[in-house]
Each structure stands twice: as structure tokens, then as C-alpha cells.
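TICKET #2291
ISSUE: user wants both folds in one file
ATTACHMENT 1:
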Amino acid sequence: MLSLETAKVPPRPFLKWAGGKGQLLSQYEPFFPARFSTYYEPFLGGGAIFFRLLPAAAMLTDINPELVNVYCCVRDRTETLIKLLDRHQRFHSPDYYYQVRATPGETAVERAARLIYLNKTCFNGLYRENSKGQFNVPIGRYKSPRICHPELLRSVAAALKQTHIATQPFDQVLEFAHSPQDFVYFDPPYHPISLTSRFTEYHRYAFQEAEQIRLRDTFVQLAQRGVKVMLSNSDCGFIRGLYQDFPIQTITASRSINANAQKRGKITEVLITSY
């Protein structure tokens, strides 16, 4: 099996994901704990922080079972997944896209390949489900999207080899993280800063004010145990008020998910820590 030492490509996020942190890593770097033993990420998404830190022990979770399935298949069914993605690469076209979108895979690895294919070819790499849990994003305008990247997937599989991956709600991390040797990073759906920026439903389970408050309560319980906790969210009065008792850093980010290109640009986010 490939190891990180022999990988041709360093591991990095293999999915395009709303709110991905790849471009913010340099701003986050000064705030990562200097030392920790186990890393927890309850809102997995694209996993940019995990791939930056490459912890020896980690637990990656998300409430979206299809996203979790993708990570498990990259780790456990790498070569089969690559073969299926190569087929998607060869047959990609608008008609093929909508055929695949309308046809859920029968096996776990087929579903994983389908999600990666749709992610690489849909509009803006946006993951969205309707009330029935069906992916409903239209095709994007890409001339030659790279759907299959074998070297990257093998490198990611090596990085995930010793990682526990599971479908579970964010507050279940309370069952596992108990000591100052644990580091938890929360990257929840951001609280909307305006009616037009309401992007909290990347799957059929909405994340509203009540969930933000429950997340704050989870943050507080972990902090009281001495667990190192870091959280990202939108820069607004509601979020700053929830975490007013903790250090809050201001991060400059780019808004990229907006159908109107003129409304994309620099905004501020907050990075909150328990330490």
C-alpha cells in the first residue's frame, strides 16, 4: 500500500466544498495548537485542516452519510473508485451528467464515484440536496474538468489509513474528546449575515439559530474539560455574542458562492478558540 513518504502528490482536499478552508490556512496557522494527540473534525466537508495538520490520530465525522461514504471509499476502495472515476471521465457530457445525477449508485463505491463526479462537474462545486435527499445542482461550465486524479486519491487514502470516519451529529464528539491532549475543529454551516447569503442547507437538514446555540454549548462543554477547541463562522453580531467569553480572531476570506460575480469578493469571518 502507498505511504505518505512514497506518494507522488501530497494529500490535499479532493472535493470542492462550500466554505473550504484551503485559501485560509496561512491565516489559521498561528492559532493551531502547538501540541495535541488526537484531532476531531465534526463537520468534515473538504477536510482542508486535516490535510494540513496530518495528525497521527484523527476522527472525522459529518451528518451527511454520502460525504462520509466518499471518504471511506477513498480510504478502503481506492483502486475500484479510480476505475469508476476514469469511466466517468471518458463519458462526461451534459447528457451523461444528468443521467448520472438521476441515477443513484447501487453500491457504496458507485455512490462515492458518482458524488465525486458530480462534485467536479456541477455548478461551482456546490453540494445541495432537496427535501428528499436528492442531489439537484445543475451542470457547471467546465471545458475539461479533471474528474479522475489517481495520484491524489492514493495519497489521500494513505493519509486516511489510520483515521476513524463516521456519520454522526457534531455534538457526539462529547463522547470522545475529554482531555487537553484532544483538539477539536468545528467548521459548521455559517450563520447567514443577510437574507441573500443564507447558505445553511448543503443537505436536507437545515442549520439554524437553534443549532448554532447547541454548537456553542458543545464548544463550552469541551472547553471546560480542557479540550483545545477551534471554530470558524461568519463575522456577525449573533456569532460574536455567542462566543463573547472566548478569544475571537478576524479572518479575511473571499466570497465565491454567488451567482452574481459582482457580489463575490472579500469578507471577514471569525476564528474562535478556547485557548
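ATTACHMENT 2:
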Amino acid sequence: MNFTSTRDKSIKTDFFHAVLNPLPSDGGMYVPLETEDLRRWLLYTDENTTFSSLAGSLTSAFVKDEFSPIICETIATKAFRFSPEIKQYDENLFLLDLAKGPTGIHRDYGISYLVSFLDTTLQLKGQKAVFLDISTGELGASLAHALRGKNNLKAVILYPRGTVRGLEESDYVWNGGNIYPIEIDGNDEACNALVREIFKDRSFIEENNITLANTLNIGRLIAQAFFYPFAFSRIKNKVHGDIVYALAAGNYSNLVSGLYAWQFALPLNGFIVPANNFLTLDVMGNPFVMDSIIPVEERLDSDPSKAFNLERLEDIFRANQLMMKHFIFPEEVSDSEIDTAAKELFMKYGYLSDRHTARAYAAAKLRGKRAEDEYSTVLIARDHPAYSADYIRQTIGEVIEIPENIKKAMTICNPGRNNLKTTKEIKSLIKEL
């Protein structure tokens, strides 16, 4: 499979180079250039197909001209020693639980796959690479876990003072690990500005194989497309009609990756998302991307410090805007409806829901009241409820037990290094790494 940009369709590259150098020269984002029909892989999966096996088969299918099936299976096997779970709550409601990774966040899947893909393929090519990212939450912990024991990758992560989490002493480069954390005296925007400035120097980025671990990197985004065929393999013999997914918007990576799964011929019938100021409803009640009023050639370059995937969503439907209304169902959801949804998930199904999942469930309930046809809903739970312990206690009145792996991921670290303040210093460090 080849990849092109959301802006300049004359750009063409393979998967490896799109992952290694994730920002196209035109300021857009990499997207699939052609649509692969993976029906023969998808339809023959069943409840005995493991997540890693499915990921290996799909990887082999869409990078068949770059790496052998054995290499693709190796990448997936190393990446996915954990798997999502599907729970059935009633005849037409399922929950896809993505909190089974090492840090209990859905990012674990994309990051683990991205790291495994690069570490394996870089070794074959005799190269090395460096991630340059910002971590103000759990990304650093997830990345550190994925990089343990890897030989061809390092990561430089910037973070505002006192916010980096989940790192161990053995993760640090100066202790033989693969993470170099840089504490910045400033807020998120100070970190963003440094990363933006470094990525502006394209020759430096390319010469030193600097890449990203956020979802601007198509290698991390494409891995999230595996969620949907996995869910389908578990429920296809339990449903007798349409399948719709309900999910919180976030930065739209899960929505876009789900649409890629649909383009790969996965049977599904749409996505319910809570509406917001970016993806909303027009006066006719149809889905509308607010950014679409600005031509892509007049927009700022994609920001390497902030992954936001709406331009990829626009790209999917650019050839046929009318089709969007048949696949994207935004719903306006109030705070009280979110809280009511969280309570209902607990009272009816015993599930302690974070606010994002409750919001998606509230949107699904609103959609269900207006839908003419019956369908099955797969509710996507992105992260472990422990990350929303305060919300659960205040809304539902339950105190959630926090697993040890999540306690570690949430623990603030103090690496004790704060001697780099400029882009010049950070560039020098990257060269050394």
C-alpha cells in the first residue's frame, strides 16, 4: 500500500518511509493512496482469531510489497502481548474494552505497534531512529514500556516541570534505557513551540531519522484500525443486522482508523460520536466539519506537537461529501445526559464508566431514539476507568480500585535532568543519541 498527503496527491511514498518521516512536505498528513480490499482476511476471522494474528495478517496484506509475511507476523507478535476484550451487555449492545494494555490506555496499542514495526524494519535496514514527542500525561509511560529492550530506537520527550509520569530509573538513557526526558520551565505551549521549531528543519529531521509517536504518524494510527475487525470477529455470529460503533471523539484517531477499516471492506454501518465545535451538525442535521470552510491549501501546516485528525476525516469523504451523512452521526449531548448515561451503565450492566465512554453511550442512546432501523451498537471504552476515579466517585458514588500497573503509569517522576533549554541543545542531544 502506498500513501499520499491530504493536500498534495502527487506525493507518494511507502509505509516504511511514511512512518519514519511522518510529516509530508506540503504540511498535510499521510493517508492511504489506494483502498485495499481485505475482505478475504476479515470475513474468515472468528472468535478464536487472536488480536496479534489478525494484526499480522492485515499488516502483511497492506504492506505486502515491502516486507514478507513472516516479518509482518513478527511485528504483530512482538507488539501485541495484550488484547482488547468484547463484552456483551444485551442483545444489541456490546462494549469494546481497550484498557488491557500495560498502562491501561488505548494508546498502548498504537504505540506498541509503531515501536515494534520501526524496531524490526530499522534492524533489517541497518538504521536507527529517534522519537521526539511531548508527554503531559500517560504517553511517556506507554512509550517507555514499548521501548524497553529495543535496540534501534530512542525517544526524547519534553514535558512541563513536574508532569512526566510512569517512567522507571532503568528507562533513562543515562542508565542504559531508551528515554531521554527533558523538563521544561514552562507550560504545554512552551514544549509545543520547541518541537514545532525542530520539525521545521526538515533536513535535520530526515538526516537524523526523527519521527513522532503521536497519531500524526500513520504507523500509530493504522494500528487502531485493527480494533474494528477484532470486534467484528467476536460479534459477527451474535448479530443479525447493521453494526454501529459509538465512541468519544478525542483527536479523531479512532474514528478515522475505523473508517479505514470500513474502506478495507469491513462490514460496518457508521459511527456515533458526541458533537462538538469541530465536528457538528449543519442546519439540515447533517455532519459538518467546521474546518472544511477553509481550503486545505490555505491552512497552517500540521502541528507535530498536537495530533488532530479531522483533516484525514475530510480526506476520506472529499470525493463524496454526501456519503458522510450515512456514516458519521454526531449527537449533541448535555452534561446531565452524560452523567445519566454513566449511572445507567453501572446500574444496568455493572460497568464503571469514565466520562468519555459515558458521553459516547449518551450519544448512542439519543441516536437510537431517532433511528428507523434496528442495529447493534459497539461502545468503545478507550481507557481504564481508574483514570477517571474522581468522576466515578462524584457521579456514581463508587470508589474504584486502581490496579498496580496503572498506579505506576500515573506516578509522577523526577528524572533530575533539566539542563537543556533551547532547540540547539536538543538537536545536539538527538545527534548524540
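RESOLUTION: both attachments delivered.
EXTRA DETAIL ON ATTACHMENT 2: The chain has a mean pLDDT of 93.
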